[in-house]
Design brief:
Distance between the termini: 122 Å
Strand content: 5-15%
Number of strands: 8
Shape: flat
Order of helices and strands: HEHHEEHEHEEHHHHHHHHEEHH
Helix content: 40-55%
Length: 373
Amino acid sequence: LRGEGASEAEATRWSTARVFSNEQGSYGAGLEEAALASELWRSQRRGGGDAQMAGLFIDRMGHAYGQGLEGAARPGAFAGNLAQVDAALMARSSNLYGVLTNDDPFQYLGGIAQAVRHLTGKDPALYVQNLRDTGAVRTDTAAGAIAREMQTRYLHPQWIAAQQAEGYSGALQVLKTAQFLWGWQVTAPATVRPDQWQSLHDTYVRDRERLGTRAWLEGANRAAYAQTLERMLDAVRLNYWSPDAATRRELAQAYSQAAQASGLRERNVAVERFAGAAMNAPPKPVVVPVEVQGATAPATQAESPAPSESRQGEAAATQPVRGLRLEPQPETVPAPRSASVVRTLWALFGMAALFALGALTQWHRHRRPRPVH
C-alpha cells in the first residue's frame, strides 16, 4: 500500500477496511454474462473461466466503504480479505425468491467462492440461512439449498404445469433455471450435482413424466428452449456432467433443430461446434464377453441408443441421492389374501359374537320380573 503513494495513515486505514461493494452508482458483480460467455474464456476446460471471472468480481466489488473510504477502489485490500475467508453465508427472507430464482445468489455468494478459490486454491464452505420463519431459522449448505429448490420447484409437476399455463413467459422461467444453475456450476462447482443436469434433461427433453414439456417448449418459445439446451450441452462440453452417448446425441440433435427452427442469433459457438461433433460421432463400441474355445474373449457390438440402454447409462452416470421418495398409493386398501389373515378375522368375529351373546344374556336377566312379596 505504501508503494502506491499512500501515506502511513491512509495505508493503515486501507488495511482495516472490511466493507466492500460496487462503485457508487453501479450494480451487480458482472458475472452473469461472463458465466454464459464460456466460449470467450481463455481456457476451454473445466474451470477455465475462474481467473477471468475472479478478477472481474474483485475489480467490481473491490470498492471500500467506511470513514474516509467512500467507495474508493481498493481491489488489493479486498483480495487480502478474501484470502482469509473460510466460509461465506447468505441470508434469504423471501418466500418468493430462492437461490435459483435470479442471478444475484450465484453472482455474490458464488462469486466470493470463485474469488477465494482463485486466490487460495481452496473452496470456502457456503451456507444459505433461511429467515422466512424467524421462529425456526434454518442454516443449510448452498448445495442443499439448490437441491431442495430443484426438487420442490423446477422439477415438480405442479410448478411445471403453472409455467405451461403461461406459455411463452413460462418457457423463459425454464431457461432461467438452466442459466442460474449454470452460474452456480461455474462459480461454485461443488454446489451442483451431475444428476441435477440429468434430471433437467429427463424432464424437459425426454419428458419422462409425460407432462408434454418438450412439445410445449418447442411450440411456445423455441428460442428459449434452444438456449436451455445450450446450457445443458455446455455442462457436458466442460465435463461438469458426463451422460451416456445416447443422451449426448439426443441433446445435440434437439439443440440443432431448435436453434435452426427459431433462427437463434446469439449462439455459443463453442457449444455449436460441440453439438455438431456429438451428432456426427460414430457409435461407441460396446465390449461383450463371448466364449471362444473354452476361454472368454471380448467381442464388440455397435452401441444402440435404445431407451432401455440409455436409462442404464444414466443410472451409472449419476451420483447416489439420499432423501424421501413419494410413491402413489391406492385409494382403497386391497383385501387381504393371506390365509393367516383370514383366520385372524374369523377369530375376531367369533370373539365379537361371544361378547354380543353375553351382553344379550345379561339384558334378559335384568328384564325378568322381580317376585312380589
